[in-house]
Design goal:
Two copies of one chain form a homodimer.
Chain A (H helix, E strand, L loop, with lengths): L6 H11 L7 E5 L12 E2 L9 E2 L3 E4 L13 E8 L14 E5 L11 E4 L3 E3 L5 E3 L9 E2 L10 E3 L7 H10 L3 E5 L3 E7 L3 E2 L10 E2 L2 H12 L2 E8 L3 H14 L2 E6 L5 H12 L1 E5 L3 E2 L5 E5 L2 E6 L3 H19 L8 E6 L10 E9 L2 E4 L6 H7 L2 E5 L11 E6 L1
Parallel strand pairs in A: 5-6, 13-16, 13-17, 14-15, 17-21, 19-23, 22-24
Antiparallel strand pairs in A: 1-12, 2-11, 3-10, 4-6, 4-7, 5-9, 8-9, 18-20, 20-21, 22-26, 23-24, 23-25, 25-26
Helix pairs in contact in A: 1-6, 3-6, 4-5
Chain lengths: ~400, ~400
């Protein structure tokens, strides 16, 4: 029999055991890459911009032609043309000349500064009066100013956001190596469970964990498959888990609250592979079992949906992030606690909270399942050695 | 010519004008409802739990039978059976009797309290010694304790998270009314633009805005369609926008930095419908135009990708939330500013920041496009009347 482990010990144990289980990569087109995890650093192959560009609307000049000019004594320059967007100007700026360049337009040869249009006036004869001097380099973004070949644009393990996709488009990275989505089987056990679309008879309840975990896995970036409800019979559970391990990268089982089923869970996993963990010093969430079956993680979560979800977020998601090579953690934010919560003894405790007006409001422990799930915006962890957390203290809330 | 409006004025103007454009609803199965927006309040039709349940593993008793018992003087009760999960017990607990009930099992008739198994001992003759008194109601969750018929479970406008999907599964809500996803056309204009998978010639750059906006729209919950790059010719742009307005719920155009194209944008939109807004007092983001074309919003965003994305988040996303009936706002979080940023005058300014060690680090204004997009984790707004924001001040960062 394994002894109960702390949450951190449990996380480390799974991380170490499955550190070699990282997903392989696949190539996806840029437009399908949102929320995917980069497999390798993206290095620039190019200069950005690829040519000297104007950063303002105005006139390209030789800076020395503008030195000393002012509103009362403008520099008069001959306008020799306009740069079209997307084209390289054929002409060259020489002493005493200028040309119009729009924002983003290519700088003509010879010019070393821009004068903003606001500081110029077009005279009746077509020449340009410059009323403010420009220093060399003013208003120009030089080739490679932003990015040079070899610069790292995005790092491996990054989950791609819209702005990253914008940067990749700019670099011409239209086919991306990302981690394959881990395929994960989700099983519910429990003789009292019926499917969500069935009307429970007296003594029965609807299975919540499967829907909850499938949705959570999608958000984490996995590809989950529901195995439905397995009856609380050792043979059936063992067959279902064995089949799921063969076909998927990870298996999540939950539930089993019938008499003796807790032992069945450990028996089944022990017969199929090696039980690594039986019991976490976490409230709720203690009856969690983790096993290595043919090198794949099988996690047996508590039957109570809130407990199952806490353990998902605290133990399963970090393991998945590891397998996905993903460098992010859960979404945490600090809030002021609205009401004192009592200390607890000997194990860490998950305290569900709703967020209201920037405060974290603890949801009474006695709240039922639906109330907890529908009202909570997240939860924080009370340390095992905490003396209680006072109203007004800051707490780090893991947001749902 | 319309005068430049503040960001707040612009938001209110669009909100009011398109307040009637709310999407209609469609029904989706629960397992496809993640991230969708609820169209109507979800009210419970049932009691949850639907029957009195035990919240502990232990023995169902008549509380009065346990009064006064202790470890040294246990109450001795006859064990008349065990409740199976998912079944209603056929027997009734009478004075001097008890039965085993697992966590979540139905309470037998007659019993009014649970005794946790830890406080009992099974004697050789099979009877149960109870070593701690239980008060009436102890260890029982009564029918409807969590939810009663008519209670609101989730409110209209809620974006569905995994935990909401769990609550809905528990309530048997397996077909959900959600807002239809608005279908949005995205057009880029600019003669200097090439597609991201093309190699730009000198003077050309790759189109970033289309990829960026398509990805952003997916994250917001819309169904975007890319129209590609439209050449900077009034006729072509007008035809493309007119066609897009016919086919989609909203149209986003971006770019047009060529000489005179800013006027073309206003001309096109003015000829097709009514221009509502031309210019926002926002840096960057000023050259934003909004129009009402046949009752549908057409927003013309700046060509610079960072500016386009700021205006997307500040103006387009709130409008979309309104159309989606969605009650959420952007994801904001407060951070300490790492470095003083100077004041600006007359218009609000978006300051991109990276987040590092809990601090917001301003990204220099001179940073190029890729650097800004790849390094920034969000941005904050400097008010138009701000005297500058000092190192150590708290800023509200809108996170990407």
């Amino acid at each position: 029999m394994l002894h109960v482990k702390s949450l951190d010990e449990s996380k480390m144990l799974l991380k170490k055991r499955f550190s070699e289980r990282c997903m392989s990569c696949e190539t996806v087109p840029l437009e399908k890459s949102i929320d995917r995890i980069l497999f390798a650093d993206i290095l620039s192959k190019e200069h950005v911009p690829g040519f000297d560009r104007s950063s303002v609307d105005g006139y390209a000049v030789m800076a020395s032609d503008t030195f000393g000019c002012s509103e009362s004594l403008p520099a008069l320059l001959k306008n020799i043309g306009a740069v079209e967007m997307g084209e390289i100007p054929a002409f060259t700026i020489t002493k005493g000349c200028c040309c119009y360049v729009p924002t983003g337009g290519a700088m003509p040869r010879g010019a070393d500064a821009m004068v903003m249009i606001e500081y110029t006036e077009t005279l009746p004869d077509g020449s340009i009066a410059v009323e403010k001097p420009s220093a060399p380099g003013a208003g120009i973004i030089y080739k490679g100013d932003d990015i040079k070949p070899g610069d790292i644009i995005l790092k491996a393990g990054k989950r791609l956001l819209p702005k990253d996709i914008g940067a990749l488009a700019a670099m011409g990275e239209t086919a991306l190596s990302v981690y394959k989505k881990p395929r994960i089987a989700v099983l519910s056990t429990g003789d009292e469970l019926v499917l969500p679309d069935q009307a429970p008879s007296m003594g029965q309840i609807r299975d919540v964990n499967q829907s909850l975990l499938l949705a959570a896995l999608v958000k984490t970036g996995a590809e989950p498959v529901g195995y439905g409800i397995i009856k609380d019979m050792k043979g059936k559970i063992k067959n279902a888990v064995a089949e799921a391990v063969d076909d998927y990268d990870m298996v999540l089982v939950s539930g089993g609250t019938s008499v003796g089923i807790k032992d069945v869970a450990e028996e089944v996993l022990g017969e199929l592979g090696e039980v690594l963990l039986h019991g976490i010093a976490l409230k709720p969430g203690k009856p969690t079992i983790a096993a290595d079956v043919h090198g794949k993680p099988v996690i047996w979560l508590p039957g109570h949906p809130a407990a199952a979800y806490f353990v998902y977020m605290l133990l399963v998601e970090p393991l998945l992030f590891g397998i996905l090579g993903c460098t992010e953690g859960p979404r945490k934010e600090s809030f002021t606690l609205m009401r004192t919560v009592p200390s607890n003894h000997g194990r860490e405790e998950c305290m569900p909270v709703s967020i209201s007006g920037g405060h974290a409001v603890p949801i009474p422990i006695k709240s039922g399942l639906i109330t907890t799930l529908s009202r909570a915006d997240g939860f924080f962890i009370i340390n095992r050695d905490s003396e209680g957390i006072k109203q007004g203290d800051r707490v780090n809330v893991i947001l749902f």
